[in-house]
Amino acid sequence: MEYLRQTVNSSELNNIFNNLPPSLRNRQLEVIILPAENNEAEEISKSKRQLGFAKGAEIPDSFFEPLSEEELQAWGL
Questions:
Q1: Would you give the DSSP letter of residue 58?
Q2: Exposure of 77 by Cβ count < 10 A (0-12 exposed, 13-18 middle, 19+ buried)?
Q3: What is the per-residue pLDDT across 47-67, written as a single tens digit (0 to 9) for each?
Q4: pLDDT, tens digit, 9 for 90 and up, residues 14-29
């Protein structure tokens, strides 16, 4: 079975139908539209989060650095 899969911006949907392969023209087709990515969610996740118990405070980048061997041993890891 021949099929067509394209990822395009919603403003370009008309172009998909204009460029159908000949074997798919003048036939009944099933069209499924799914979001491929969510740019807004990516921007939100990259923003700095504030601590709920310390309003205005930011988590420093050093928080995400690996623990030293000494600290890992102190935690029993």
A1: B
A2: exposed
A3: 566 666 767 777 788 888 888
A4: 888 788 888 888 888 8
CA distance 30 to 72: 56
Q: What is the rounded distance in angstroms from the CA atom of residue 59 to the CA atom of residue 51?
A: 8
H runs (alpha helix) in the chain = 13-18, 39-46, 69-74
Nearest to 29 by CA among 20, 42, 38: 20
Residue 39, classified by CB atoms within 10 Å of its CB into exposed (0-12), middle (13-18) or buried (19+), is exposed
- Whether 51 contacts 59, CB under 8 Å: yes
Digit-coded pLDDT (tens) for 36-49: 766 565 555 555 66
CA distances for 19 relative to 2, 42, 69, angstroms: 14, 31, 60
